[in-house]
Design brief:
The protein is an alpha+beta fold. Helix 9 links the parallel strand 15 and strand 16. It is built from twelve helices and 21 strands.
């Protein structure tokens, strides 16, 4: 089996990933520009809008491919200009004057203007928006468009992450209307057809302002279970799997026909409590649950030699990472003592809302078995991704849930008491606010390390493990991403011999 590993320090990882792009395979000289790239995924969008609950799948398929931002988040987490030509920041950090590229048009033929940028940001901050990044733009006091190529953002307070946050905003034609089933972006592909429950097809756009995509067509094929997805790669129905769900499946891809790549991941598997409701409004109970779970055994049972244990919301690729795995150790007797101190010596029963796709059902059964040892009864309620979004994320009608959180730098959501898990700590909120207003990255890092430590001490959630990022592809493919940053999967550099 040929395997490329992208490990080590973040900078080294990023350089390797961006230069190599793939494990092995064809070069541009032998690649067909008319190739169709078939991508296998378990994450079908629920709709095509990233402000109306499209989910992880809409990011994977459309970000960078169909839609672009003023800035782009590269595979190593750096922010670089894309549709923005330049940005000037005032000395007080409250005014960002962005100059747009003048050679960009939307797929409909309309030119990119400052009005499109203004409406796109306002779509994220709108009352009916469900974008997870919505609160990140609460500091925007005004968006001015003095001319077609200039956007002026005025902030109510300094925001050190402003351009980073802006990189998440799709720039959509302000005349596009409802984009839950259609699109009008500026990216290297246009949407050809979405067959719900089956495939989503993108076509190379010949009028793209930048470097043309290296393939003619991309077809995302969606599967409801990992076995079917693996079989599709073995039979040639697809060319690449964006994220392998089980190490047990890797053996069948040994040999010269496939390449297995291990990249870096920002995806955290969480047992998320609803911290608003009893008994999970009690930190001792949450800590008791944490210490009843052998996370090392869980990681091994799900991922074998892959994946990483984490003790807080922060992956090692974030600047404010600390190893906090010892804060809530696996200790059954400690768990029982904490339960007794909290008034639950005889345990309690709770419902665990569990997404139906892998690996959540297996994780739920593991937790059910482990927590039974300390007298806690777990009733597993299996729900679809759509049900999870409505019941848990939107209506916050749950006691505890399993979910993977894919973004980097998302520890700040513990500073938002309105987020679905309802963690509400005034000190954490103050630190998050101060970190965003920091004048230097060192100040920001120091404050967010304090946030890490506090949410770990409070066991605000149980951070079960950090997913590995395993990509398996046909050996005649190259140019595909191997890192799992925020679920984005740029397809434009993929070539097939």
């Amino acid at each position: 089996m040929r395997r490329t590993r992208f490990l080590g320090a973040l900078g080294a990882v990023a350089t390797l990933a961006l230069v190599a792009g793939c494990a092995s395979g064809a070069t541009d000289d032998t690649a067909s520009e008319d190739a169709t790239i078939a991508i296998g995924s378990l994450y079908e969008p629920t709709n095509l809008s990233n402000t109306q609950g499209g989910g992880q799948g809409v990011t994977e398929a459309l970000t960078g491919n169909v839609y672009e931002g003023l800035y782009r988040l590269t595979d190593d987490g750096e922010v670089e200009p894309l549709l923005a030509e330049d940005a000037q920041v005032s000395d007080d950090g409250l005014t960002y004057t962005v100059t747009l590229r003048d050679d960009v048009t939307f797929h409909s033929g309309d030119p990119l203007t400052s009005a499109d940028v203004k409406s796109s940001v306002e779509a994220v901050t709108a009352e009916d928006s469900v974008s997870a990044r919505k609160s990140s733009f609460a500091t925007i006091a005004d968006i001015a468009t003095p001319d077609d190529q200039t956007v002026v953002f005025t902030l109510s307070q300094r925001s050190i992450s402003f351009l980073y946050n802006v990189s998440y905003v799709w720039i959509v034609n302000d005349e596009a209307g409802d984009i839950t089933s259609t699109e009008d972006g500026t990216g290297p592909y246009t949407l050809d057809e979405w067959k719900k429950g089956s495939t989503l097809t993108l076509q190379r756009w010949d009028d793209y302002w930048g470097e043309a995509a290296k393939n003619a067509e991309v077809v995302y094929t969606y599967f409801t279970d990992a076995t079917a997805e693996n079989n599709a790669l073995l039979t040639g129905e697809i060319d690449v799997i964006t994220s392998v769900q089980s190490p047990d499946s890797l053996a069948q891809f040994e040999g010269d026909d496939y390449v297995i790549s291990e990249g870096t991941s920002t995806t955290k598997e969480l047992l998320a409590f609803n911290d608003r409701v009893a008994p999970f409004d009690n930190a001792q109970v949450r800590k008791a649950v944490y210490s009843a779970i052998d996370t090392a055994k869980l990681l091994d049972s799900i991922w074998g030699d892959y994946g990483t244990l984490i003790g807080s919301m922060v992956p090692p690729t974030d600047p404010w990472y600390e190893d906090l795995t010892a804060v809530n150790p696996y200790d059954v007797e400690l768990s029982k003592d904490l339960l007794a101190q909290a008034g639950y010596a005889d345990g309690f029963t709770f419902t665990l809302d569990t997404p139906s796709y892998d690996p959540h059902p297996a994780v739920a059964e593991f937790l059910q078995s482990q927590l039974a040892e300390v007298g806690i009864t777990v009733e597993i309620n299996t729900i679809s991704a759509d049900e999870w979004y409505t019941k848990v994320f939107k209506e916050q009608d749950f006691e505890a849930t399993l979910q993977e959180h894919v973004n980097d730098r998302d520890v700040v959501w513990y500073g938002n008491p309105d987020f679905y898990w309802g963690y509400d700590d005034a000190q954490v909120q103050q630190w998050v606010s101060e970190a965003e207003q920091a004048e230097t990255t060192d100040e920001q890092t120091a404050l967010l390390k304090q946030v890490n430590e506090k949410i770990a001490e409070d066991a605000a959630s149980v951070w079960l493990y950090l997913y590995p990022q395993l990509v398996v592809a046909s050996s005649d493919l190259s140019g595909y991403p191997v890192n799992g940053l925020n679920s984005q999967f740029f397809a434009y550099d993929i070539v097939k011999s």
